[in-house]
Known about the structure:
Elements: H1 2-21, E1 29-31, H2 40-48, H3 57-65, H4 68-72, H5 77-83, E2 86-90, H6 96-104, E3 108-113, H7 116-129, E4 134-137, E5 143-145, E6 149-155, H8 164-174, E7 176-187, H9 193-204, H10 209-219, H11 226-237, H12 247-257, E8 259-264, H13 275-281, H14 285-294, E9 302-309
Parallel strand pairs: 2-3, 2-6, 3-4, 6-7
Antiparallel strand pairs: 1-5, 7-9, 8-9
Helix pairs in contact: 3-6, 3-7, 6-7, 8-12, 9-14, 10-11
Amino acid sequence: xIKFWITKIFQYVKGLLKKKSQGIPKDIYTVVDRETFxxxxxxxxxxxxxxNFYSSIEKQADSVVKGRSNxxxxxxxxxxLEKAQRVLDVGCGAGWLxxxxxxxxxxxxxxxxxxxxxxxxxxxxxxxxxxxxxIMEYDLFKFVPEEKFDLxxxxxxxxxxxxxxxxxxxLLRHVLASNGKMYIGLYHKYGREPFLSYFEKLKTEKRDxxxxxxxxxxxxxxxxxxxxxxxxxxxxxxxxxxxxHTLEEVAGLLENEGAKLxxxxxxxxxxxxxxxxxxxxxxxxxxxxxDSLAKRRYFPGFFTFLIQKN
Length: 310
């Protein structure tokens, strides 16, 4: 029994010291002793080179200054960010979205990521630009804020955990405030398949990594910073773990969690009455992926959706 409590006290003190080192009040965030579905192989992969990473802090900062278009590419976010007070970016990586929000909007924005390498770059960029964004190293499955967030965003992250739907459930139950909204982006089951199949075929032909990189560059020709492009290539083609999902699958989870679907990229965020029509529409994503490959256009098979907690 004594050994048990010594262990608990040690964990508690360690948590407080960690928060102190991050410069945040110790009573704001709580790390809980619960099961995690964060994937350690994914963490090692991103420590080698985080996603969306530039060759220098200055170039990373420049992408933030010019990065409002990244937000505008997600139309539901614009009116929400204009009104939101507390915003959380889950899996913020090198901080492209967290810092861009802080640069363009007056809300209090926090970013969390389990990769300290990416977190330190995001913090350095925030400091370089004089931003107020809080960016911290946390396992999302163990993140339980005492004051919840009215807007939670997570783009291209949860499908790299070992329990994507569990991650959404955790955010709904423990992180998102009542009546708050959450904007999620995931790989799509149908839309992702053509892209993956294309590169899997090249791999079975024993093509080396340099050849795969050249083929990826043909598709994603808009990226011109070498390090940045390499980070995207590794993320899209060499990633050790990902899952793919459908809107129908997510909708089933929302019903059980007392949340509702507000809009989705599946129908370009247009109003809808019957979600079943969206479920039929999303099956066309496979053809969209094939058409994009035929035209040598980058399409990763990605979809987004906005949900509200009742």
